[in-house]
Write a structure and sequence with these properties.
Radius of gyration: 13 Å
Structural class: alpha+beta
Number of strands: 7
Order of helices and strands: EEEEEEHE
Number of domains: 1
Oligomer: single chain
Distance between the termini: 44 Å
Largest sheet: 7 strands, mixed
Strand content: 35-45%
């Protein structure tokens, strides 16, 4: 179950928070651990979506690596939080800017 913190963030009864902090960024917080996420807006199947990189949950902001099984759990948590906000989550590699 989720509760709205503000127009850009939700908190789960599991204890984690997903907060959009800018046009291209969000924070996933679980206790004192934080992952800053690079996000993109998009459309998928005619529905607004948030695009996350497949490596988004590779390490906490303090540099500590996140185990693969925990990464999967964090992606699932983020997906639930994003869907609660009426969006779809898509995991794909972002476009590199052309030089």
């Amino acid at each position: 179950m989720f509760t709205w913190l503000n127009k850009q963030g939700v908190q789960s009864d599991k204890g984690f928070v997903l907060q959009f902090t800018g046009r291209f960024s969000a924070e996933y917080r679980d206790g004192d651990k934080v992952v800053t996420l690079d996000v993109e807006d998009g459309m998928s199947g005619g529905m607004p979506c948030i695009i996350l990189d497949p490596n988004a949950f590779i390490r906490w902001d303090d540099g500590v690596p996140i185990a693969p099984d925990l990464q999967e759990h964090l992606y699932q948590n983020a997906k639930e939080a994003i869907e609660f906000q009426g969006l779809k989550m898509v995991v794909e590699k972002g476009e590199s800017p052309s030089v």
